[in-house]
Amino acid sequence: MIHCQQVSVVYPNGTRALSDVDLHIERGEFAFVTGASGSGKSTLLKLVYRDIAPTEGKVIVDGQDVAKLPPRRVPYLRRKVGVVFQDFRLLPDKPVWENVGFTLDVLGSSRREKYHKVPLALELVGLSSKTEAYPSELSAGEQQRVCIARSLVNMPPVLLADEPTGNLDPAMSWDIVQLLDDIAQRGTTVLVASHDQNIVDRLGKRVIQLVQGVVVRDGKDGGRYDAT
After folding, report:
1. Cβ atoms within 10 Å, residue 226
2. Residue 175's domain is classified under what CATH number?
3. Count of alpha carbons within 13 Å of 116, Cβ hemisphere only?
4. Domain count of the chain?
């Protein structure tokens, strides 16, 4: 589902964010990307949804070389890739239902499709009873669940989460990561950038560790945050 072949990223200011990254992530697989701040975790995720392009190498998502996509085709790629951010990015003046449905509005989906898909997404994240609540009325964990529902409402085959537990307490963090694991078990490819050692160790999934843009460990059979 996601293939990185000899991928390097050098930003315009000369900063080398990734060096010779080779990864293969299967459909329906759950994997953590770990490493210190500045190790390249967010850069790796940005490559997958074509926020940036590799300086060298190839990034292939669902059979497409994303660097070769013309600008007009990038939105079609992003229909296949849901993204969950640490800072929620919810619309404060819209209730939960409209926040989740906003993704479908952007995609130009019909009203009928919206009324079918939004309830399914909210049910999946356990928020069917919160459809009329506003973000300010929700806990941090509930807000993150809304973000996950918004990212999943179009049923993308890939879900990326960039530090999804960064603003949550330990109990809420565990609930969110378990939800992401459940989503992977339903067939979605889930890639989570995280520096939460407790969560990574507890879940025991594949761990891809980055140090200064280099993959120094790839525990494909499951592992701990830092196995050294």
Report:
1. 13
2. 3.40.50.300
3. 7
4. 1
Q: Judge whether 228 lies within some domain.
A: no
Residue 227 lies in a domain: no
Q: What is the pLDDT of residue 122?
A: 96
Give the three-state DSSP class for 174: helix
**Maximum Cα interatomic distance, the chain, rounded to a whole number of Å:** 53
Q: Which residue has the tokens 């010779």?
A: 20
Could you say which DSSP state residue 182 is in?
A: H
Q: Provide the domain limits for residue 29.
A: 2-219
What is the structure's pLDDT at 112?
A: 93
Per-residue pLDDT tens over the stretch 64-94:
999 999 989 998 898 999 999 888 889 999 9
CA-to-CA separations, 21 to 6, 18, 41, 118, in angstroms, rounded: 5, 7, 12, 37
SS3 213: coil
In a domain, 224, yes or no: no
165/176 Cα distance (integer angstroms): 7
